[in-house]
Amino acid sequence: MNPLSPTARTRLGRLPERSSTDRSVLYEILDDGMICHLGLIVDGSPRVIPTAYGRLDDTLYLHGSTGASSLRAGPSQDICVTVTHLDGLVLARSLFHHSINYRSAIVYGTPRPADGDEKLTGLRVITEQLTPGQWDVARHPDRKELAGVSVLALSLDEASVKVRQGPPGDEEEDYALDVWAGVLPVTQTFGAPAPDPLLRPGIPIPGHITQRVTS
Amino acid sequence: MNPLSPTARTRLGRLPERSSTDRSVLYEILDDGMICHLGLIVDGSPRVIPTAYGRLDDTLYLHGSTGASSLRAGPSQDICVTVTHLDGLVLARSLFHHSINYRSAIVYGTPRPADGDEKLTGLRVITEQLTPGQWDVARHPDRKELAGVSVLALSLDEASVKVRQGPPGDEEEDYALDVWAGVLPVTQTFGAPAPDPLLRPGIPIPGHITQRVTS
Fold first, then answer.
1. What would the pLDDT profile of A147-161 be if each residue is shown by its tens digit?
2. What are the structural domains of chain A?
3. How far apart are CA B62 and CA B33, in angstroms?
4. Where are the bilayer-spanning segments (chains A, B) (predicted)?
5. Tens digit of each residue's pLDDT (9 = 90 or more) over B44-86
């Protein structure tokens, strides 16, 4: 697995000790997420749109319907895709040292449309990223539906990751203060599945969904 | 409270029925979040950075240290700030109608640096957005610490919100399929606070933190 090579865009200016060039860390951060924030330039202004994505090897597939008009309209253009996990609030003795425990990945590049067989692959990868097991149970898209969605493929050639974990670090003299310090963990959890009011009776919740529910 | 007026940037192309011009919806979405995704243009490329923020009336304060080098370096420039809540995975009978329940706010504008008293106000607002009650217990920044952070102020003049909630909508003929359909709710929850290993004995976890823990 080749390491992440810093480019002018991915080299970290601030707190470089929080970066990693380990490609497996990039994979973990991307695989753990459900939505990304897609950045692009529209009429000279930056725009940031939340959208669904999935990873297959060194390709990121993006669901292109949301905001795709902007991407389809112009020629191929640079985008930035960011996936962030908020893992905890870091509460220090001084406000200055308050922080956030997080893992984030930033990917730069020019996406290409995924067409033909690759479009179906991309949709499968995006579906399975959000709900593993779902591709095998729901009805697959027909020709007309396939034509109605767009999928973008972005290579993971240019990416950076940044991770902050652990307790706060305070100024030496502040450890004597009578202030509680530590981390308040933040997690994304799944609640009880809510059946569609129009669900036909007798259809049980499938195992790949019930097993995700946080007990 | 004046409504959100559509501009060329905030007018929604796709699924306009998911938009709202109700400013109170914008406030709710912003007030519910802990991090935003800040989009800016650096050397001609879009860049999306997660960062902390807070809202006071019609001003968004952004913690400017992360990525601030890019913002400080150039002249004042357009940015885009997006806050997204992932509320649920919408599982339909057909893959085409799979969706995500979410609430998102997108704010456009040119931020100005918050200086002097307003810098302190901005830091308070950002701190209280992440951990309400924390400003009153931790040591406040001294002059040197204040100089070491930057705070940006962005007006909520140009913003849009988009919300999707509720069950899936399937094609008429698919309701007969033997496929479970519904929503898997997603929530952000707080775990048990982890005290700093260097915490002096006898300092209890304050009530404003324990009360946030999901029971």
1. 989 999 999 999 999
2. 16-186 (2.30.110.10)
3. 13
4. none
5. 999 999 999 999 999 999 997 655 455 654 457 899 999 999 9
